[in-house]
Amino acid sequence: MGRTKTQSSKTKGTLVNYVRAVWGVLQSIYKGNEQTLSEWGFVVNTILPTPDPTSFAILSV
Fold first, then answer.
1. How many domains would you assign to the chain?
2. DSSP 39
3. What is the per-residue DSSP string for 12-33?
4. pLDDT computed for residue 50 by the predictor
5. Cα 21 to chain centroid, rounded
6. pLDDT (0 to 100) of residue 61
7. Is residue 26 part of a domain?
8. Residue 54 and residue 52: Cα distance in Å, rounded?
């Protein structure tokens, strides 16, 4: 799966690596039109809180 001490999401051939790769492709294809993913069964949150300009976050899967 890519969860042992010697593996990470970048270890080729692991489940985590494949999931992150698919996530990246979907992110690229549907950028700006994320609501389309709901047609494929994904739950899409289109209401986001107003970001605090004094803070930031790095989001990942």
1. 1
2. G
3. TTSHHHHHHHHHHHHHHHTTT-
4. 62
5. 9
6. 46
7. yes
8. 5
pLDDT in the model for residue 1? 59
Residue 25's φ and ψ, nearest 5 degrees, are -65, -50
Residue 18 lies inside a defined structural domain of this protein: yes
Tens digits of residue pLDDT in 8-59? 767 788 888 888 888 888 888 888 888 888 888 878 777 766 666 555 555 5
The Cα 11–Cα 57 span in angstroms is 25
7 in a structural domain? yes
CA distance 30 to 34: 5
CA distance 30 to 50: 22
